[in-house]
Design goal:
Shape: globular
Number of strands: 0
Distance between the termini: 32 Å
């Protein structure tokens, strides 16, 4: 099987898993966001549920707002706006670099869709990254494929992802960082180490 076609199939496989695990998100892709991994019976679809997902969404949006010039970068001029206590001047990382991915995606398709697409993309990013790492280390397809599926669906990650915690989104950093590091060791090339560090 040709390599690009194989990775396209792998991408579609992990994306399908993401659609299944986040259902009914795909039906409300433009208007809703997940707020819990296991909402109570009868409360799967609610309006403006309180939760960490709103705080994460706010910080992702805040970085995009800063890039558009409406607010200072890595500051929060809107929330807890109490100048006499110096809150406005505090550094706020705005979940960078996750917020950079959000800003690029949201620029093209809108904020809510951008958040939801980032959520769905976390499945193939986790799965493919782990697959490449395991395939490089152990040279065997099925263990790499099964391991990647398990890694993409770790309950800890999925619960945090669907609840709006940044760690659920950013699990994919780990295996990509390790994968490029291993490539650097195998090929004895510092460029891969630099990519890993970035």
């Amino acid at each position: 099987m040709k390599r690009p076609f194989f990775y396209l199939i792998l991408f579609l496989y992990f994306t399908a898993i993401g659609v299944i695990y986040s259902y009914p998100l795909v039906r409300h892709f433009s208007t809703g966001m997940t707020y819990l991994s296991s909402p109570p019976q009868g409360e799967e679809l609610v309006t403006l549920a309180h939760g960490d997902y709103l705080q994460l969404y706010y910080y992702l949006w805040l970085f995009k707002d800063a890039l558009s010039g409406h607010s200072p970068l890595f500051k929060d001029p809107y929330q807890l706006n109490v100048p006499q206590y110096g809150v406005q001047g505090h550094f706020n990382n705005q979940f960078f670099p996750l917020s950079l991915f959000f800003a690029v995606i949201a620029f093209f398709i809108g904020d809510v869709r951008g958040y939801n697409l980032l959520l769905l993309l976390s499945f193939p990013l986790c799965g493919i990254g782990f697959f490449l790492l395991m395939k490089t280390c152990f040279k065997s397809f099925w263990p790499a494929f099964l391991g990647a599926t398990v890694f993409a669906l770790i309950p800890y990650r999925v619960a945090h992802l669907l609840g709006g915690h940044p760690g659920g989104f950013t699990h994919f950093y780990l295996q990509w960082m390790a994968y490029f590091y291993v490539l650097g060791i195998i090929h004895k090339n510092w460029i891969w180490g630099l990519i890993s560090g970035l």
